[in-house]
Amino acid sequence: MPELTRKLWFSTLLDAAMHRAWLFRLGRLDAVGRVAHFLSETNVRLVSADLSDGTRFALGITQADISEICGITSVHANRVLRQLREERLCIFRSSLVEILDVEGLARRGQFNPAYLYIENKSGRPDIERPTS
Amino acid sequence: MIPPEDSGVQLLPGKASVEEGLVLLDGPDGVAVTMTAYAASETGKSLLEAARLIEEKSDNEKL
User: Fold this and answer.
1) What domain of life does the native source organism fall in (chain B) (predicted)?
2) For A2-108, where are the E strands, in sequence order?
3) What class does CATH assign to A3-115?
4) In chain B, what residues touch A31 (CB-CB under 8 Å)?
C-alpha cells in the first residue's frame, strides 16, 4: 500500500477511535470521570508530541472550554476541578495542568490509552504506525 | 427478560450537591446535570411520585 494511503487510513482510523472514546466519555462517565478522561488523553497526546513531560503541560483553554468539551456546565466544571485538586489527582491553574497522580487520574476517568496507538515504553509501536 | 444490571437500568442512586446556588446531580451512570433549585425540587418530586407508583403496584401484587 502506498505510504501516503497508509498514513491517511491511519489518521482516519485514529480519528474514529477517538470519536468512540469521546462518545464513551460523554455517555457513560460522571462529571469527574469526564474531565479526568479528557486530561489523561490530552496528556498522552502531548507527551507523544513532546509537549508534556508526562505530568505537566500547558493547556490554553478555560474552565468554560472544559465544560463544553465534557458536556457539563461551567459551575460543574469548577466543582470537578476543585475535587480533582482536593483528591490530589490533578491541578489546573493559569492554563497549566499538573497531574499529581497519573495512574489515579486515568483510573478515575477509566482511561485506557490503547485507542491512541501511542508507542509503548520499549519504543516500538503497538501496531505498525506510518513513518513520518 | 434481560436483568436490569445488564440492560443499562441503574441500580445505584445519583448524588446531589450544591455549588454556587445551583444543584449538581452526579450519576447514576453518566448523568451530570446542573439545575436550579426549582428544577431540582420538581424533578425530585416527580421521581418520588414515579417510585411511589411502582412501590404501590408491588405492594398490591403481594396482597
Assistant:
1) Bacteria
2) 56-58, 90-93, 96-99
3) mainly alpha
4) 24, 26, 32
